[in-house]
Amino acid sequence: MKFRLILGAALALALAVPTAASATTLIASGSVAAQPVLQALFNGYHKAHPGITFVYTANGGNAGVKDVQSGRSQFAGQARPPLPSDAGTTYVKGYLDGLCVLVNKQNSLHSLTISQLGDIYAGRLTDWKTFPGAHLTGTIDPYGRDANGGTYNFFSQAVLQGNPPGGNVNALSSDGLIANAVKQDKYGIGYDGLAYTRLLRPIKVAGIPCDHANVASERYPLSRYIYYVLPTGKADPQVTKFIDWARTSRAAGGIINNSGGVAVFNKKPPKHHKKRSTRR
Amino acid sequence: MQRDRLRSWRLGDRVGLGLCWALGALFCAIAAAIVIYMLVEGLRYLRPALLVTHPTGGYGEAHSGGFLDPLLGTFLVAALAMVVALPVGIAVAVWLSEFGRPAGLARATESTIEMIAGAPSIVLALFGTIIFQSGALGLFSRTAHGVVFGRSFFAAGAMLSLVAIPLVVANTREGLQLIPAHVREASYAVGKTKAATIRRILLPAARPQMATGAILGIGRVIGDTAIIVILLGATLTFNGAGGLSGLSTLRGTGSTLTSYIYTNSPAGEGNQPGKAYAAAFVLLLMVLVLNASVDLVARRGRKHRWN
Amino acid sequence: MAPRWTDARTGRLLGALVCAVLLTTASMLLFVLVQGWPSFAHNGLHWFGSGGSVDVQIRNIFLSGETGTHPVYTFHAWPLVWSTILITGGAVVISLVISLFVSAFIVEFAPEPIRAVLRPVIRLLAAVPSVIYGLIGVLVVVPFIGNHLISQSARASKAGIISLSGYSLLAAAVILTVMISPLMVAVFSDGMRTVPSGWVEGSLGLGVNRWRTFWKIVVRTARPAIVAGTVLAAARAIGEAVMLAMVSGSVGFSPNPGDGWLFFVEPSRPLAPTIIKNSEELSSPPMHATLFAIASVLLLSSALFSLVGWAAKQPMKKYGVRA
Q1: What is the pLDDT of residues C8-18, one digit of tens each?
Q2: What is the assigned CATH class of domain A23-96+224-273?
Q3: Radius of gyration of chain B (CA)
């Protein structure tokens, strides 16, 4: 009996102690590809404003937009431009990301045009000997994302003119798996975010290399914006404050650049802080 | 006495024995390879600091902190699941073993428990998403602007308890069946009711098997990936919902070691395989400890003999 | 003095709890079936048939819900069902054979130190999360198959149709076998150990050699445990989603036995990974119905396995074996 009393009292006490600070939680969802950068931004913002925490569910860009439309999320991250079905939402450009095309170490290909890339992924060009620059003979193994994400939609729109990829494309569920697959398969080719160029060599698309500067200036053809999606007219002021910070502040710019994105609208650090070390 | 000489066996029997040894050796080799691989990779990346640092959303190994929150999350989810699974499992086992009338109901119960045991966890996760997003169960997760989030520790714990219940039921039932009938008859003879017998005599005697069932259930719960990935919201740190501290953690989202491993493996977006291996190592250590305790409890239970 | 908790009262209370559990389970089954019903209603038995590319159909289902036009439910899941049958069936059959011999090894023929090490190792393996098996598959097994087991001419013959890069039936079945055999071995060896030692000793005393004794007496008596272990492992295999999503390849392609050796290295996608791969599209109503339809097929299959197991145990009952 006494044991039960003590247990009950302890339980009541544990449940009743109010949280120390009045924390606001902002709820977001959306793009899986943007998650690492967004998570880093949330972290940075939380350090500057300790009362605000974020909950981000990476359920895919399309699901994120649906959440915003239904009010389930206060904002979403999206990796493709708006479509007519996204009615009731406002797309705000956040930062740039580049979709780099990666090939294996043993593949010496240097460059492809968009139409060649499209032919590879549609299953029309199937052998590496069609590309003498590769110094390889063998069937091409294209790796791509599965239909869950904005990355897939973006690639479809930009390279395949809206058509789905051919049946010979291996659809993997994350960027990491694509990088891993291309690393181990010498006949492989895949597309991934800028961050994965640390692991594999990207090739030039339409003659333009996939690097920070070219993506920032949008010269690289497969540059894409990551958007913040807000409900039109009903955006929470805390959310708007965060998005403004993420888009324009210098600290946020640093975070974006360090996490694999390319900051576009953020204030650059002042000139005399720049070191004269060469970019690796 | 004649020794059993291999040469005198028929060919078929020798082949059988040879297969036994060959497959046994192959199995040992594969098992050893997997365990050693996990050990080596885990030890390579595991540092004690990781166990006590909070994960941060940074990019790159140096900035992403440790996995304290997923570790605590694993414990929390296991505790929640057992809080539901133990009482329900024991009650069902007691009913099946001591009552069990009408017989049709007993058979239906056995089949149902078997069906729950066989249900794929992805189906349980899908089911959980739907019911916890309904307004009626809004108490169990975060609610914002009238929309129920549906993902929380409560939700994950509830579905995981379904995963653990069959193990608890099977083991408790076995423990109760081991008790010979004369013990019960003696108890009824001195005038005790069934309830008192169960409470004071049978359950304490079946404690080793109940413990085994509970520990096996915990083992299954902490290794489950599908339900956690879908029902826990996958936020790196605990994200409470609402004002009351303890309750808000349970209503909020978080992560466990399994979803942390999933996110940081190449299959997820965190892409820090070193941390994933370290977390996997910790998880396997927990499983080893749990298995060792099962052995210990079983051995201590065997000392109890009914003659 | 009448006790508060009479037998009848306790019986009723516990019975009520049991009924609650039954009702919860029944409602779960019903719920999943009802949510998936639109997909079955629109397709009828053709749901299990073939016709058209299943990937294109999934895409159309999703888009029709997104763009708000007339919802499309056309879904012919035969490639997915065939892949499930091949991978699950293959893994269960191979694992059954391997686990029988391995449990025989553990229970009877292994020297004591090996046995002492193997027992905890098997239980450890049974508890390893599926993500780790998936990782081992993606990092080790798939590259091995892709780089060493598939010839260039083989890939060229399928160029443009599917990509033979190691994500295959073989990888999926092998890893699934490794995943479910610890479970089978644990249940089989428990069953084999409960055979009364008197029977074994009697047989040995009559001069039967160790192998025959073991095979004819212990394994025969442990048949109910073997059936139970197989059913458990089959249910786990059919519901495995995370690991298969990583190694089986992700095309809705129906592997063709007529391709000979190539048949084993063709990619495909079983039912459970399909759910996980499309779980982010639950918000689209036709997709929601289709995914729940797949889930109900999985649920009913594991119930079917239990039924088959029960039927298989019935003829064993006449030998007085506790089945």
Answers
A1: 888 888 889 99
A2: alpha beta
A3: 24
Identify the pLDDT of residue C135.
Answer: 82
Written as six digits, the tokens of A263 are: 């900051």
C-alpha dist (Å) from residue C157 to A138, A165, C162, C258, C319: 11, 19, 10, 14, 55
Answer whether residue C196 shows pLDDT above 80.
Answer: yes
* Residue B33 touches partner C, C-beta closer than 8 Å: no
- Between positions 199 and 218 of A, the ones with CB within 8 A of C are none
Which residue in this structure is represented by tokens 């990088």? Answer: A179
Of the candidates C138, C163, C279, which has its C-beta nearest A169's C-beta? C163
Domain extents for chain A? 23-96+224-273, 98-223
User: Residue A12 and residue A15: Cα distance in Å, rounded?
Assistant: 5
Half-sphere exposure of C37 (CA within 13 A, CB side): 6
Q: Going from the first residue of chain B to its last (307 residues), give the mean pLDDT of each consecutive group of 10, the final group possibly shorter.
A: 63 83 87 85 80 68 73 89 93 90 87 87 86 76 68 87 91 88 91 87 87 86 83 72 70 82 73 79 86 81 64
Q: Looking at residue A3, what is its pLDDT?
A: 59
Concatenated DSSP letters of C101-166: HHHHIIIIIS-HHHHHHHHHHHHHHHTS-HHHHHHHIIIIIHHHIIIIIS-HHHHHHTTTT---SS
Overall average pLDDT of the C300-316 stretch: 86
Contact B223/C21, CB-based, under 8 Å? no
Name the closest residue on chain B to residue A72, using Cα atoms.
B147
Q: What is the pTM of this model?
A: 0.84
* Length of chain C counted residue by residue: 323
By CB atoms closer than 10 A (0-12, 13-18, 19+), residue A164 is: middle
pLDDT at B257: 86
pLDDT of C71 higher than 90: no
CATH of domain A98-223: 3.40.190.10
Q: Please list every residue in chain C whose beta carbon sits closer than 8 Å to the beta carbon of residue A147.
A: 58-59, 62, 277-278, 281
For residues A272 and A244, what is the distance between their CA atoms, to the nearest angstrom? Answer: 25
A62: closest CA of chain C, how far (Å):
8
List domains and CATH numbers for chain C. 41-319 (1.10.3720.10)
B131 contact C CB<8A? yes
Complete domains list, chain B, with CATH = 46-301 (1.10.3720.10)
ipTM of the prediction: 0.81
Choose the weakest-confidence range: A51-55, A249-253, B80-84, C112-116: A51-55
